[in-house]
Amino acid sequence: MTPEQLKASILQYAVEGKLVKQDPNDEPASELLKRIENEKAELIREGKIKKSKKLPAISNDEEPFDIPDSWEWIRLGNICEPIRYGFTSSAKDNGNSKLVRITDIQNNNVNWNNVPFCDVPKVKLKDLQLKTNDILIARTGGTVGKSFVVKNISEVAVFASYLIRIRLIDNELIDFVKYFLDSPYYWQMISLKQSGTGQPNVNATKLSEILIPIPPIEEQKRIVAKIEKLMPLVDEYAESYNRLQKIDNEFEDKLKQSVLQYAMEGKLVKQNLSDESAINNLKEAREEIKQAINNKKLRNEKYLKAQNNGEYPKNWAVARLKEICEKNNAAIKRGPFGSSITKSMFVPKGKDTFKIYEQGNAIRKDINYGSYYITKDKFESLRAFEVKPGDIIISCAGTIGETFIIPSKMEPGIINQALLKLTLDTSIIDKDFFLLEFKSISSQLKLHAKGSAIKNLASLKYLKNKVSFPVPPLEEQKRIVKNVEKIMKAISELSK
């Protein structure tokens, strides 16, 4: 049960007479209502309030639920002065009265310092001026039915036209009535009384016809005291509930992250001594790098080699990015920057056009996403940024670190500036294993993300020289992928 549901249940119990015990010694509510009726009649005779239109009698079929014998059903309009609409005026910096609007009522409170002024004709001010225990109800818009009880008012203030004022004949009822106006039953009535297909609204007539259950005055006091005792406990429950909700929401992600960490530390599956050691593969890769440099296929960039210092199994290697990619200059490529490609160069899709792959393809894991194309001539000039089936693209700006393997069925094209393209050496590293590995280090990469408004993936220099990639034997990589996928599926099912 959510805190909101718990609070609603308490208030519903309160208005149904189920929250506290009835006391046979209490004066029945019928006597209280007689006094209110007499007092209202006296106010009308004295000319202090106007006579309202008589409200229809309450039929047994109309009563929404049973109430204790000592309680009475009454229409809201019968226990208050004529319901009053607010004053129509624009807000001003100065005037003879404050003007309370719907927007001034926030979290059951009004900051009077922020309430604007208006000028009210003296003839109307007496009738419109707010008093302590006046009830304001929003009559239109998204907050229709929302109520506020004016307390300890020291300002001359009136209420705006989108509000309705209810002023009880007997203010002893105010606390119980306020809780009634928060109850599920009241909101159900507001929903039924609403009119209008556009802006929902409720008028004074419909409000006055709402049925309200009235307990004996002594029982009202007990109900209010009980609610006020319970609400702090509901608040405590809400804090605990919200903490648990946060834990629940984070549980799946944290558990999956732990699985990835175990996998990348060699703790998820058993090592098989018959697997070919990844160390040998890495040695071969380093020799291939030297040959590629000598053959001018790869730029001679110095990089700091990574080592397995005992934090991984003995038959694992630890590599840098260029060691697990193919040994050519196009294997690690960030999309073209600056004026190399601009929107003015885009053309409609057609014969001899080439697609621009963007980070939406990586984020959505969708090869068909995007509709930007360039001519064949432009493609030829940017062929270094070509993407092919089996390449991995990585989002580099904003939503960083999202990965996607380019499928075999794809349109020829290039990457844009928001993508990094990798062509892995599959004799060293399995593509699916790399995706898991990259995901496991994504938090490390985000810490080194550059940019202010929009974060950008860490520089290629950082990726090449600072990030270590643990490399198990190929067969173990495949076992890890299989086990991780199985566990991740189970976690997702558990979290539903």
Automatic annotation (TrEMBL):
The UniProt entry's GO biological process terms, in alphabetical order, are: DNA restriction-modification system
- Matching InterPro entries: Restrct_endonuc_typeI_TRD (IPR000055), Restrct_endonuc_typeI_TRD_sf (IPR044946), Type-I_RE_S_subunit (IPR051212)
Alphabetized Pfam families for the sequence:
Methylase_S
Q: Which UniProt keywords apply?
A: Coiled coil, DNA-binding, Endonuclease, Hydrolase, Nuclease, Restriction system
Q: From the UniProt record, which GO molecular function terms apply?
A: DNA binding; endonuclease activity
Segments forming a coiled coil: 275-306
- SUPFAM superfamilies referenced in this protein's UniProt entry, alphabetically: DNA methylase specificity domain (SSF116734)
Q: Does the keyword tRNA-binding apply?
A: no
Domain Type I restriction modification DNA specificity residue range list: 68-230, 313-491
The protein's assembly and partners: The methyltransferase is composed of M and S polypeptides.
Its protein name is Restriction endonuclease subunit S
Q: Which source organism does the UniProt entry give?
A: Lactobacillus amylovorus subsp. animalium
